[in-house]
């Protein structure tokens, strides 16, 4: 089965880096995967997204690259949510930061499965705030059976600067442990 994921946030948060790590980890498993990136006009603080299309079966080919509906939406910033909220369909699973989830969003997305990342709690456990993006990948690996934790850890190790490696791995593991469904 073909699965689609959009990771979106603000430039500098690591949404694009997360998309690259996720795509490489899926490729590592021998699955077909396509990853694209979209940037806002701003160099920093603009809205960015990484889209990943992958097959859960090694023999399944990806033919359609134009995605209108995603199976999973990872939302790292309120501004990104505001930009894309009208594109989120009722069958989409949403992973977002707990700090910008509210009752209004609960009403708008009452048909969706929603998982929250307790960013403030995770930020207290890591040195570098830029590692927070890895917690979203951890959450995704817990929620989606075809996303492999070990493959992601391997790619985090190969893609992370040594200064951030320990924090990236910790944030990933905290995302697995701390994500919760509402």
Structural class: alpha/beta
> Biggest sheet: strands side by side, in what order?
2-3-1-4-5-6-7
Kindly state the percentage of residues in helix: 40-55%
Multimerization state: single chain
Overall radius of gyration: 15 Å
The level 1 CATH classification is Alpha Beta
The count of β-strands is 7
Query: Average pLDDT, to the nearest integer?
Result: 93
Which parts are unreliable, with pLDDT below 50 for 5 consecutive residues or more? Answer: none
Which series of helices and strands comes N to C? EHEEEHEHEHHHHE
**Helix count from the secondary structure assignment:** 7
* CATH topology (fold) name: Pyruvate-ferredoxin Oxidoreductase, domain 3
The CATH superfamily is identified as Pyruvate-ferredoxin oxidoreductase, PFOR, domain III
- Shape label: globular
Largest sheet: 7 strands, mixed
Total of domains: 1
Distance from first to last alpha carbon: 26 Å
CATH architecture: 3-Layer(aba) Sandwich
Strand content: 15-25%
């Amino acid at each position: 089965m073909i699965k689609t994921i959009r990771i979106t946030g603000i430039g500098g948060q690591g949404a694009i880096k997360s998309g690259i790590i996720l795509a490489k980890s899926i490729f590592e498993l021998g699955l077909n995967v396509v990853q694209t990136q979209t940037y806002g006009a701003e160099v920093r603080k603009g809205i960015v997204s990484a889209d990943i299309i992958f097959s859960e079966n090694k023999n399944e080919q990806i033919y359609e690259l134009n995605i209108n509906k995603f199976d999973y939406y990872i939302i790292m910033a309120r501004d990104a949510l505001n930009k894309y909220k009208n594109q989120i369909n009722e069958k989409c699973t949403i992973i977002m930061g707990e700090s910008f989830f509210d009752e209004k969003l609960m009403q708008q997305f009452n048909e969706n499965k929603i998982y929250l990342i307790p960013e403030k709690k995770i930020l207290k456990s890591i040195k570098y705030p830029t590692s927070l993006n890895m917690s979203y990948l951890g959450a995704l690996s817990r929620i989606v059976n075809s996303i492999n934790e070990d493959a992601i850890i391997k790619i985090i190790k190969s893609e992370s600067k040594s200064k951030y490696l320990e924090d990236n791995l910790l944030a990933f593991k905290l995302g697995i442990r701390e994500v919760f469904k509402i």
